[in-house]
Design a protein that fits this description.
It is a single chain. This protein folds into 2 domains: 195 residues, Rossmann fold (3-Layer(aba) Sandwich); 176 residues, Rossmann fold, CATH 3.40.50. It is globular and about 65 Å long. The protein contains 15 helices and 15 strands. The protein is 39% helix and 17% strand. Strand 13, helix 11 and strand 14 form a beta-alpha-beta unit.
Length: 386
């Protein structure tokens, strides 16, 4: 098959959506399928790998690395790539998503949409009345999803959410995957713990996240202040528009000496970082899945997550969910074992098995083939006339 990915968010942005898109693309290619990605051009960024076609873009009027895509594709790419696709898979309901929808309908291809983001949680980025913005985001999600032949959601909680919004098309629950072997190879490293600010006898609390309002990182800073346990050290890996405010919050709460901001950590360094923490925390309530939870589980980490349906879906019987409030998180932090629990680590690693790449690719290929069969299309694409 030849599959076209259309996404508004892609490299050099570093986040869970980009990671899941790349993992899916690599998995499909490993099975002999061709994947072509259409994404906005980012000034100063040169493509590192993969057949990626960049479209002109403009900066958004807010402080964000995301771009406004201009729906312009060269005639060469239209004739040589898009018309030859077997299927279109869109990862955004914005400009690139509507482009993918237009081409799928024009050339008779099935359309799959992966619901990566709860758009309502990002209303604060738009300079309009928040309630109106959230309503518009919900309407956009419903309208776009109902235009697809199938919508992929990463957790059962998100399937329920879309049904509540009025999405009536076929929904498939397919968890976004990680390389379980890579994250499972992480090892506890005392030198790395020391670099993260943890001395002998300290307990290291890790959060890996983009630093933005919707990620709720301030909950962990406040929990550190409420906890008043001097043996706790919070290390935050990631960057984003809220970093300066979070650093100031740590100073105001009196925990700056026990909180360290690492900035963006290279992906190959994450397995050891997960394995070296005493607990991994997920304070966000807005994820559709939260790939970092799966990564932490694969490394055998103790996981503490905000109590949401989607976080419960990902954790299963591993880890602990607590109300997203400082006192509740503080109590959970105080209960972190001082000595790594081998049995709990084994349970975490077993829970991560559900997120193996092979399982996701099997499910996605089966879905693609079913949709193509329903449309009476061969599994190898033909050139379609305009």
């Amino acid at each position: 098959m030849r599959v076209g990915f259309f996404t508004e968010v892609y490299r050099p942005v570093v986040n869970g959506v980009v990671a899941s898109i790349d993992t899916l693309a690599e998995g499909l290619r490993s099975r002999g399928h061709e994947v072509y990605c259409f994404a906005p051009r980012v000034p100063g960024y040169d493509e590192a790998d993969g057949p990626v076609f960049r479209m002109p873009s403009l900066p958004l009027p807010t402080r964000t690395p995301y771009r406004l895509t201009l729906p312009l594709v060269s005639r060469r790419n239209l004739n040589k790539v898009i018309k030859r696709l077997s299927l279109v898979h869109v990862h955004s309901p914005f400009v690139t998503g509507w482009m993918g929808l237009r081409y799928a309908r024009r050339y008779g291809m099935p359309l799959v949409y992966t619901y990566h983001t709860q758009l309502e949680a990002y209303a604060h980025y738009v300079p309009f009345e928040p309630n109106a913005t959230r309503y518009a985001a919900s309407q956009l999600t419903r309208t776009f999803a109902n235009s697809a032949d199938a919508v992929v959601v990463p957790t059962p909680a998100m399937a329920t959410r879309l049904r509540e919004l009025g999405v009536g098309v076929r929904l498939e629950v397919v968890p976004s995957s990680i390389d379980v072997a890579v994250f499972g190879a992480g090892r506890r490293d005392d030198a790395l713990r020391a670099l993260a600010g943890a001395g002998l006898g300290d307990r290291l609390v890790l959060c890996v996240s983009r630093l933005a309002k919707e990620k709720n990182i301030e909950l962990l800073v406040d929990a550190m202040a409420v906890g008043a346990d001097r043996s706790l050290r919070l290390v935050i890996a990631g960057d984003g528009p809220a970093r300066e405010a979070l650093e100031e919050r740590a100073r105001q709460r009196g925990v700056a000496d026990r909180t360290r901001f690492l900035g963006i950590v290279a992906r190959e360094q994450l397995p050891d970082l997960y394995a070296s923490c005493d607990a991994f925390c997920m304070p966000s309530t807005t994820e559709t899945q939260g790939l970092v939870i799966a990564e932490a589980l694969a490394a055998g980490a103790t996981v503490i997550a905000a109590d949401t349906p989607q976080n419960r879906d990902v954790l299963g019987l591993a880890g602990r969910v607590v109300p997203p409030a400082p006192k509740a998180f503080a109590a959970a932090l105080r209960a972190i074992p001082k000595v790594p629990d081998a049995a709990a680590s084994a349970v975490a690693r077993q829970a991560a098995e559900r997120f193996r790449i092979e399982a996701q690719i099997d499910r996605m290929i089966a879905l693609y083939e079913e949709l193509m069969a329903a449309a009476n299309l061969p599994l190898t694409a033909n050139v379609r006339s305009p």
